[in-house]
Amino acid sequence: MPINKKYIHTCIHTYIHTYIHTHIHAYIHTYIHAYIHTCIHTYIHTYIHTYIHTYIHTYIHTYTHTYIHPYIHTYIHTYIHTYIHTYIHTYIHTYIHTYT
Fold first, then answer.
1. Which residues of 6-30 are buried (b: 16+ CB within 10 A; e: fewer)?
2. Burial of 67 (0-12, 13-18, 19+ CB in 10 A)
3. Number of H-type helices and E-type strands within the chain
């Protein structure tokens, strides 16, 4: 039986093509998946840490100093002025009228 060179060539070509395609595809897919996943993960982590953390920190800091701090300051001032001042005034007034 004579050797069919075209058949052997086709078989070798198909095998090599399939082998190379499969391995290169697997390698590239693995590499791209790992690389892109790492890049995206790093980018998102950096973005979240840098921008969102900074934004939240700035927002909370600004909100606290703009609204909460003045509210607490006003509340404490009002409380001291209204209740404690009134209490001391009443106490002194009562003391003076009772014991003098």
1. eeeeeeeeeeeeeeeeeeeeeeeee
2. exposed
3. 4, 0
Q: Low-confidence residues of the chain, pLDDT below 50?
A: none
Q: What is the 3-state secondary structure (H, E, C) of the chain?
A: CCCCHHHHHHHHHHHHHHHHHHHHHHHHHHHHHHHHHHHHHHHHHHHHHHHHHHHHHHHHHHHHHHHHHHHHHHHHHHHHHHHHHHHHHHHHHHHHHHHC
Model confidence, pTM: 0.38
